[in-house]
Amino acid sequence: MQPFSRFLIYFLAVARHSSIRKAAEDLHIAGSAINRHILLGEKQLQTPLFERLPTGMRLTAAGELLYGCARRWVKDLDDLNRQIDDLKGIRRGQVDLLAPEALSRAFLPELVRRMKESHPGVVLNMNIRDTRRIHEALLSGEGDLALVLDPEELRDLVVIRRMSFPLGFVCRPDHPLAQHTAIRLTQCADYPMVVPEQPLALSSVFARLMDAGRIDPRISARANNVQMIISLVAAGIGIGFLSYLDVMSEVMRGDMAFVPLVGAHVPHLTLALVHDRTRQLSRTTHLVGNMIDEIMSRHVA
């Protein structure tokens, strides 16, 4: 069902591609027809929606407002269609899930596998985003559910479940630290370390812990990518400061060992499953949320 006018369809395409030509190629419509509808819409609204630049089309402030509303209208229509399907008892549908990259190696593949086993007609659209942008992406209608790390602003969100992951050091299974169930920072000070660098959030956490413990670490390497840190640890360069979430898949396979840090100044990493409080969730979305909740409960630290 497509209840939207041609103008709105064309407007969304031009806004998405920042180009009438690319929008025309995407929609298989003549560019002149798209331009004519955009001009008519601007005339009716009595305000320009795009800046015409040599490099393409850029939304004006009014265009940004319309684009945000239109995206939400499209999302609301999807929700309506899913709820109608629910009333019909149709066991199909799709759910858009926003998540950080850290979950892409173990958590999300497990979710997709279990959903396919129990509800093969449900399609999960995995949208991996920068942690700092997931909140705004959810509120702009780009997802039905989101997994957010260390959420700060929760006023517009409903938290379905929270869980915490310890911070600590990852090492090879044959490393002396692997024999411990938990360690203090002073026990790690004599080992070469692979430490996180900006923009990884753990970089500032590591620096604070070192300052609080008055420890001068033996830094063997720095990296601003979690997978790079894991690779360096696997190569024997040193022990790596990460969260359990970062190395969950490697630990579960037995490729790495993770030893949590204990102490008064050691924080935990929080993961929250959330949704926009202004939207009504479909039965399919509730189904996926319950599955995520169940998986999270098995990993609570």
TrEMBL record:
One of its GO terms (cellular component) is cytosol. It comes from the Bacteria. The chain crosses the membrane at residues 228-247. Residues 8-60 form the HTH lysR-type domain. GO terms for molecular function: DNA binding; DNA-binding transcription factor activity. It holds the Pfam family LysR_substrate. Keywords: DNA-binding, Membrane, Transcription, Transcription regulation, Transmembrane, Transmembrane helix. Belongs to the LysR transcriptional regulatory family. This is LysR family transcriptional regulator.
